[in-house]
Write a structure and sequence with these properties.
Belongs to the UPF0122 family. The chain is mainly α. The protein is 81% helix and 0% strand.
């Protein structure tokens, strides 16, 4: 169950980054399945195509999203940025005296991404 949720989250995030690079039909299928939780059968009925055709189209779309990520790495960079922001905020929220150099270092790393 957790793996399915992780895959759904990954596809949704990749779609946010690269969805505009897909064909209109691929965009519609991804949106209906991953964002509106329609089943393959419901999508097939909507488009008057077979369930297998929906499955194939969706798989091609997801593979295209993964190829875009392999080449452009926007999601990977986003994750690195997010982790650095969390680290920075945890420093700021802690009651410890924070060294300016630590903060400058993290901000510099973020700037260079």
């Amino acid at each position: 169950m957790l793996a399915l949720l992780e895959k759904t989250n990954r596809v949704n995030i990749l779609y946010d980054f690269y969805g505009s690079l897909l064909t209109r039909r691929q965009q519609q299928i991804i949106e209906l399945y991953y964002q509106h939780n329609l089943s393959l059968g419901e999508i097939a009925e909507e488009y008057q195509i077979s369930r297998q055709a929906v499955y194939d189209l969706m798989n091609r779309a997801v593979k295209a999203l993964e190829r875009f990520e392999d080449k452009l790495e926007l999601y990977k960079k986003y994750q690195v940025q997010r982790d650095k922001y969390h680290k920075l905020f945890s420093y700021l929220e802690s009651n410890e005296r924070i060294e300016r150099e630590k903060i400058k270092s993290i901000l510099t790393e973020l700037w260079e991404l």
